[in-house]
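Limitations

Structures in this collection are predictions, not experimental determinations, and the ligand pose is part of the prediction. Treat each record accordingly. The example that follows, with magnesium ion as the small molecule, is included so readers can see exactly what is and is not provided: the inputs are given verbatim, and the output is the predicted complex.
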Amino acid sequence: MALLLALLLVLVPAAAAAPPNIVILFADDLGYGDLGVYGNPTIRTPHLDRMAVEGQKWTDFYVGASVCTPSRAALLTGRLPIRNGMMSAKNRVLFPDSLGGLPQEEVTIAEILKPLGYATMAIGKWHLGHLPQYLPTRQGFDAYFGIPYSNDMDKTPGAPRGPELWKHPKIEYFNVPLMRDEKIIERPADQTTITRRYTEEAVRFIRRHKGGPFFVYLAYNLPHVPLFRSPKFAGVSLRGLYGDVVEEIDWSVGRILDTLEEEGLARNTLVVFTSDNGPWLIFDEFGGSAGPLRGGKGSTWEGGMREPALFWWPGKVRPGTVHELGSTMDLLPTIAAITGAEAPKDRVLDGYDLSPVLFGKGKSPRKEMFYWRGDKLFAVRLGRYKAHFYTRSGYRHRQETAHEPPLLFDLGVDPGEQWDVAGEHPDVIEKIRKLAEEHKASIEPVKDQLLERSPEALTSRAASAKATGGLPLGGAR
Ligand code: MG
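Predicted complex:
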């Protein structure tokens, strides 16, 4: 008995100190208004709604950029993509013919967790470089299962022209590879079963590593157009095909939460759900909704960069709705703080530790948000006010509009950015102007990772663009 007690005394503190598991669930092009708990009237998301009710729902949570590649770089490194070349004036994202990727010297969330003994897996869309030296397995992940870039890339010559391409998409129109670790295992990837298979991979990985600690980064490649869902989800949503796709993602989230509970891991696992950028509005009902926010994917209006964000960790995250500022760039410092991992100290990080808010012990240290587009700072939020120095719609318009004085919106009362109050607050504008100048001075020039593309691949791409009539799916994203 004495021996048992002594053993317990040794074991209990060790168990209490075990670092938590981390699960990041990252949707693609899901808008601020696409979940039930964010007010969508027709898409049913009971599992995500449950995450919000049992955990925290953030109303003012931002991504680091309004399109895929730079947004993903921001999440994994805690840095604005302008600092590591993952944002470019010319190309907005990486393409199948791109030669660049997230530089090796960047430090990802997986890389800070590895020294603590975490098992790490990336599942889903990567989009930070498809060449071997840029794959997840070279950025701190033990394993990878997913597609290396967007699900609409690598269009085949037989793909139809016009809206048919996204209204009635077929797997064979998109020659997207599915990879395990560093090998292509299926091409074209069967996108109708992809969300289900990502989920099964995540569940398997969690079960295999239930002794912990583990880190799962599951980046769904949907509801990015073209939309696909399993036969089981065909026609289930009032919101049509787009709703079916989101409801399947919600099912996936439910499976993961259930697995954590079944394995007794829920009380030692932080689950985060958010999306990489706002809805792709040019696709009408095949894109999502930014709810009350203005604009969507590709723009620096709120609809492009403010996202649903849910934090779930029963017994640890204090349930409630948070109206303070947060960002995907805050995940790395927050995860470092709650696991004891070391965030890199030799470079500028753009993230903050949000754990005081998660645990109900303090306020968010984030007071500002910088909205970059390409190599230009378009807008800055400071507290409740946001100033736009430039505006431009997400797609189609070739030119930006410069604003002098900047447009100023009070997001506290006007999250839809409808009423310019610049005339009433010259003091606020001056403050934001100073902050913007200081911020820009902190940016050092680096190699543009999105710029270089291979000429041979460009030729076949040009042929493919011609075949599809140069429609938005072939355009710059
Ligand atoms: Mg996206």
